[in-house]
Amino acid sequence: MNKILFTGGGSAGHVSVNVALIPEFKKNGYQISYIGSKKGIEKEMIEKISGVEYHEISSGKLRRYFSWENFIDPFKVLKGIIDSIFILKKEKPEFVFSKGGFVSVPVCLAARILKIPVVLHESDLTPGLANKINIKFSNHIFTTFEDTLKYLPKDKASLIGAIVRDDIYNGDKEAGYKFCNFNSEKPVILVMGGSLGSKILNDYIWNNIEELTKKYQIVHLVGKNLLNKDIKAEGYCQYEFLAQELFDVFQIVDFTISRAGANALYEYLALEKPAILVPLGTNQSRGDQIENARFFEKNSFAKVVSEEEFASLKVSEIDDFYNDLAQYKDAMKRYKEEKKVINSVDDFYKKILKIVGGKM
């Protein structure tokens, strides 16, 4: 049986494309294994997929602040490389597919040592640190944004566009209303702070819940272990994270208030859901969400509000955004028709196999 090994983690954005691709490879007869961290969100997401063997490695972490753990992490990475070599020798995959995140670095380096082909995917406008390292060990890297290509070697980089899960189009509106206990009388806002949650977004919604629910119904994804049991309001529901239920919920959503991870943004574009974006600041990231958000604002898909400004955002400004939704939706529809940036999982599967010479 043909084998493929996936890697990537640290955030849902570094796993979601893998989650979309795995069923396609399984459908075509591939045996799937996965290397991730011991406690990352990738473990939780991948273990929900039947028939995928999950391997844990030590990988360290990229921190943009002083920590004594920064001195220990190089040894964790070294152990992760050794662990990955043993796993790859056992699994004997035809190739490795990496979505990025720091856990992927030991895996890609180990694959290079063992002369196993490596294919990467970069969602953000500029490559993340893990992919900047991994590109040296890879055979090819696919990008979501065309502008990303200028940062990469021309001989092994190509545009694939956004890979959107097929299931995202198959949600049921009635099921969405029932799941949230909402009705069709008020517009619905989806608030997404990313898989790890966002204190800034959460605090804003909770501090303004009474005024917001006068006009809107709110589905609030707060992040792991961040549910606030003290907040109760008619037309408001909160969850740590949604999996399959999100497809139904998307069908009732009018617009989103969200962080600006590339995978989520392209799902909004695919479904024509305009967004108020609050990108992660440079004190917590390399600024990739700011770049993603600016791209979406420049193309009239979203309104960008900085973290510093968001806490004082007036509800009337959200009302103004809602009143302009038709313009944002028109811009999204035109862009999709002209640029053809939303790609199918099946097409990506075929392009990956063309690169590595695998069997379809």
From TrEMBL:
Membrane topology classification: Peripheral membrane protein
Keyword Repressor tagged: no
Keyword Ligase recorded: no
Swiss-Prot/TrEMBL catalytic activity: di-trans,octa-cis-undecaprenyl diphospho-N-acetyl-alpha-D-muramoyl-L-alanyl-D-glutamyl-meso-2,6-diaminopimeloyl-D-alanyl-D-alanine + UDP-N-acetyl-alpha-D-glucosamine = di-trans,octa-cis-undecaprenyl diphospho-[N-acetyl-alpha-D-glucosaminyl-(1->4)]-N-acetyl-alpha-D-muramoyl-L-alanyl-D-glutamyl-meso-2,6-diaminopimeloyl-D-alanyl-D-alanine + UDP + H(+)
Annotated positions binding UDP-N-acetyl-alpha-D-glucosamine: 11-13, 165, 195, 289
Coiled coil: 318-345
Top-level enzyme category: transferase
GO biological process: carbohydrate metabolic process; cell division; cell wall organization; peptidoglycan biosynthetic process; regulation of cell shape
InterPro entries (UniProt xref): GlcNAc_MurG, Glyco_trans_28_C, GlycoTrans_28_N
Annotated compartments: Cell membrane
UniProt domain Glycosyltransferase family 28 N-terminal: residue ranges: 4-142
UniProt keyword terms in alphabetical order: Cell cycle, Cell division, Cell membrane, Cell shape, Cell wall biogenesis/degradation, Coiled coil, Glycosyltransferase, Membrane, Peptidoglycan synthesis, Transferase
GO cellular component: plasma membrane
UniProt-listed Pfam families: Glyco_tran_28_C (PF04101), Glyco_transf_28 (PF03033)
GO function terms (MF aspect): undecaprenyldiphospho-muramoylpentapeptide beta-N-acetylglucosaminyltransferase activity
The protein, known as: UDP-N-acetylglucosamine--N-acetylmuramyl-(pentapeptide) pyrophosphoryl-undecaprenol N-acetylglucosamine transferase
Organism: Gemella morbillorum
Gene designation per UniProt: murG
